[in-house]
Amino acid sequence: MEKTTVLLALMGLDIGGAETHAVVLARHLQEMGYKVVIASNGGVYEEQIRLNGIKHYHVNLTSRNPLTAMQSVCRLCRLVKQERIDLIHAHARIPAFLCNIVSRYYHIPFITTAHAAFRSNFLLRWLSVWGEYTIAVSNDIKEYLTRTFAVNPDQITVIYNGIDAEVFTPQVDYGPVARELGLNENCRKIVCVTRLDNQLADVVLHLIDAVELLSKQYSPLALVVAGSGNRLREVLKYAREKNKALGRNVIHVLGKRTDIAQLVNMATVFVGISRAAMEAMACEKPVVLAGWWSFIGLLEPDKVPILKENNFTGRSFSQPVTPRLLADEIARVFELDEAELRNQGKWNRGLILEEYSSKAMAEETAAVYESILSLGVRQ
Fold first, then answer.
1. Is the N-terminal amide bond of 66 cis, ω within 30° of 0?
2. Which pLDDT score, from 0 to 100, does residue 270 have?
3. Comparing 5-162+358-373 with 175-355, is the CATH topology the same?
4. Close Cβ partners of 270 (under 8 Å, ≥ 6 residues apart)
5. Where are the domains positioned within the chain?
6. How are the residues of the chain apportioned to helix, strand and coil, as percentages rounded to the nearest 5?
7. How far does Cα 271 stand from its chain's mean position?
8. Edge-to-edge strands of the sheet including 221-226?
9. What number of helices (H) and strands (E) belong to the chain?
10. Would you give the distance in Å from CA 124 to the centre of its chain?
11. Which of 19, 200, 296, 329 could in theory staple to 314 by disulfide, Cβ–Cβ 3.0 to 4.6 A?
12. How large a percentage of the chain has pLDDT more than 90?
């Protein structure tokens, strides 16, 4: 029997929740017997998907330029014909808009995943397409799509982010990255993995200020930031200025990395939100949740019911992030004894294993595929 061929279309393959989600999904789908093809603008995860036996096509799915968009549609059409695509699954607004055109032309089933609450105005609502079915990664995103974009709630299913607990495990050896950065076991390490775009970069700037406050009380101390974006240069410049003022290299801004499991396992405490925070949980790390929506603080059991509703982003919280809040909460983690840290780490990983398995996510996604494919060609 011929394999079902799925095209995953996304903006790029750099650090980001949607990107990592798609890479993990692709690998599991391949293991389940699907043939998977990825189209994107490329990035640091290209080598990883190649090693997983997944073909990648470079297609500009980021540009709003009409001429570039037309060229991308033509390239997608050739790809769909060449690879005999059976279903298209888009993971961002521009890829969805372009893939919708291709899907309608070839009458191929088409679905989308909404990874965030997309910005909305008249033009953006017109440009936003959701396919025959939509997957939302949290309940609040499903509600947002229904309220803002008038998507039929019966055509939306919630499938939580899935974390690969075989990759993100406390058994990962972080020695190579610690040696690269010159950080020994006595050093308290704050690790943050995030895109450095727009308001997300503001959180990192606050975190750098928090480290300056903490450096008066804790030494040796290090902040390690992995990620890239349109404000990377600004963050690098700010980190250099702070290191100069401190008289030593406390802040390490690494840019794009793929050795995220090593970096996370090196952490004394992880600061971040969403998928990155969940990956740290899988590694049994204490997690301080802070994003551009709000400051949540140390992840504890009583916060989880609300956090589940918003994909561990803090969209339901309202307290702004400040350097002092970050510093105080990180210091709180530093003062926990070994037993408390161990118990919290075990609880964090247990939650991921029980409710956020990447294999379960892929199986639920495949069930959506089969449901849509059973309806036949798209009209």
1. no
2. 99
3. yes
4. 190, 191, 192, 193, 264, 276, 277, 280, 285, 286, 287, 288
5. 5-162+358-373, 175-355
6. 50, 15, 35
7. 14
8. 251-255, 221-226, 188-193, 269-272, 287-290, 295-298
9. 15, 13
10. 22
11. 296
12. 82
What are the strands, taking DSSP E only, across the chain? Answer: 5-9, 35-40, 55-58, 87-90, 110-114, 133-136, 156-158, 188-193, 221-226, 251-255, 269-272, 287-290, 295-298
CA angle 320, 233, 324 (to 5 degrees): 25
Output the furthest CA–CA distance in the chain (Å, rounded): 65
- Nearest by Cα to 137 from 105, 160, 103: 160
What pLDDT, on the 0 to 100 scale, is given for residue 125? 56
pLDDT < 70 regions, the chain: 1, 117-127, 377-379
Pick the CATH number of 5-162+358-373 from 3.40.50.2000, 3.40.50.20, 2.60.40.2550, 3.30.450.20: 3.40.50.2000
Q: Which two tokens stand for residue 181?
A: 């950065």
Separation between Cα atoms, residue 357 and residue 17, nearest integer Å: 15
- In the numeric block, the tokens 């030593």 are attached to 248
According to the model, what pLDDT value does residue 379 have? Answer: 54
CA distance 375 to 371: 7
The answer to whether 272 and 286 are in contact (CB under 8 A) is no
Question: Which pLDDT score, from 0 to 100, does residue 121 have?
Answer: 55
Structure tokens at 213: 């406050």
The CATH class that applies to domain 175-355 reads alpha beta
Q: What is the DSSP letter of 320?
A: P
Tens digits of residue pLDDT in 143-164: 989 998 888 999 999 999 999 9
The answer to whether 5 and 15 have CB atoms below 8 angstroms apart is no
Tokens of 91: 């993971």
Q: How far apart are CA 369 and CA 379, in angstroms?
A: 17
Predicted confidence at residue 297, as pLDDT, reads: 96
Inter-CA distances, 124 with 11, 130, 149, 157, 355, Å: 17, 13, 10, 22, 33
**Single pTM value for the model:** 0.90
CB atoms under 10 Å from CB of 326, counted, come to 25
Tokens 């699907």 found at: 34
Q: What is the pLDDT of residues 235-277, one digit of tens each?
A: 999 999 999 999 999 999 999 999 999 999 999 999 999 999 9
Q: Can you give the length of the chain in residues?
A: 379
